[in-house]
Write a structure and sequence with these properties.
Order of helices and strands: EHEHEEHEHHEEHHEHEHEHEEH
Mean pLDDT: 93
CATH class of the largest domain: Alpha Beta
Largest sheet: 12 strands, mixed
Strand content: 15-25%
Low-confidence stretches: none
CATH superfamily of the largest domain: Isopropylmalate Dehydrogenase
Structural class: alpha/beta
Number of strands: 12
CATH topology of the largest domain: Isopropylmalate Dehydrogenase
Number of helices: 11
Shape: globular
Length: 328
């Protein structure tokens, strides 16, 4: 069907969190996408009532859609394990949450959806139910059989992570030539294939203060990072660094790169979140499909109030659409 809207599978995340309300707010926008909520129908209806937002739910039949009315939402119904109570996660809903992620991922792999957009979930509730669960990123990587990299991006800055949720003391041992090469190749490919950069420029941060200061503040740069960058530069990659993190984000330096590789979670993300928290999107690079997410948690204290800000979910949906363009 010519002119069909791109299909986005959108998960509602933790039923007791703000995710269902954010999804309802997203549906109210005029976004030119076929939004398919992978969620419990009643959950969405109750969220709409709490938000005071009109919502038309339509069973998803998989057929192409040429136009979507604001306030309408196609739904792939999966039943809750227990009725939600806003602000009070229930481990009985853990299997439901994982089922929504599996449907979204499998649907993308089968071509039923073009991309998946995820609302926040409550890891502790899933773990309390007895499941081995680390997070969205790891779940989708395992489901797709892919090696992945986490990137957080705003319209002004893209930050990929060499390590994610590990203790700071474990970071140096985790940064090996093999892991850095894998990460840089995934980021480089995504910048070309998804973001449309013909020759991506990637700034690589040093691990130590002042990027090790010629070995006086640590040898990881000399022993691991620099040799790897030199080898990949010989292949034609445009890699800048290793750069000291304290000056890598000044305007003059930012003009020189398209993305940054941060050695650990809190090295670069405070810069990104302090300047664009409501416009920052979490991406999983390396998957055979586009996956974007909000860059915040379940906000249990706001759940049920109808006051949660949908900006990050809207930004995630818009970025998913933008990332689909080079592939279409």
């Amino acid at each position: 069907m010519s002119g069909a809207l791109p299909r986005l599978a959108v998960t509602a995340g933790e039923p007791a969190g703000v995710g269902p309300e954010l999804l309802v707010r997203l549906a109210a926008t005029p976004l030119a996408a076929d939004l398919v909520a992978v969620a419990d129908r009643g959950l969405l209806e109750r969220a709409a009532a709490r938000c005071g937002a009109p919502l038309e739910l339509i069973d998803d039949d998989g057929r192409p859609l040429a136009e979507r009315r604001p306030g309408s939402l196609r739904v792939r119904h999966l039943p809750l394990g227990a009725t939600e109570h806003p602000g009070q996660p229930d481990p009985r809903n853990a299997a439901y949450v994982l089922a929504t992620l599996a449907e979204a991922a499998d649907g993308c792999l089968a071509g039923r959806y073009g991309a998946v957009v995820t609302a926040p979930l409550q890891k502790s509730s899933i773990i309390d139910a007895g499941y081995r669960f680390v997070g969205h990123t790891e779940f989708f990587a395992e489901r797709a059989g892919s090696e992945v990299v986490m990137m957080l991006a705003s319209p002004e800055l893209r930050v990929a992570l060499a390590t994610i949720h590990i203790p700071l003391a474990a970071v140096p041992a985790a940064i090996t030539p093999a892991s850095l090469e894998r990460t840089l190749r995934i980021v480089h490919a995504a910048l070309r294939e998804r973001f449309g950069f013909a020759a991506p420029r990637i700034a690589v941060l040093g691990l130590n203060p002042h990027a090790g200061e010629a070995g006086h503040l640590g040898r990881e740069e000399l022993d691991t990072i620099i040799p790897l960058l030199e080898r990949l530069r010989a292949e034609g990659m445009q890699l800048i660094g290793p750069l000291p993190a304290d000056t890598a984000f000044v305007p003059a330096v930012r003009e020189r790169y398209d993305a940054v590789l941060s050695m650990y979670h809190d090295q670069a993300l405070p810069v990104l979140k302090s300047e664009a928290f409501d416009r920052t999107v979490n991406l999983t690079l390396g998957l055979p499909f586009v996956r974007t997410s909000v860059d915040h948690g379940t906000a249990l204290d706001l759940a049920g109030s109808g006051r949660a800000d949908p900006s990050s979910l809207i930004a995630a949906a818009k970025m998913a659409l933008a990332l689909l363009e080079p592939a279409r």
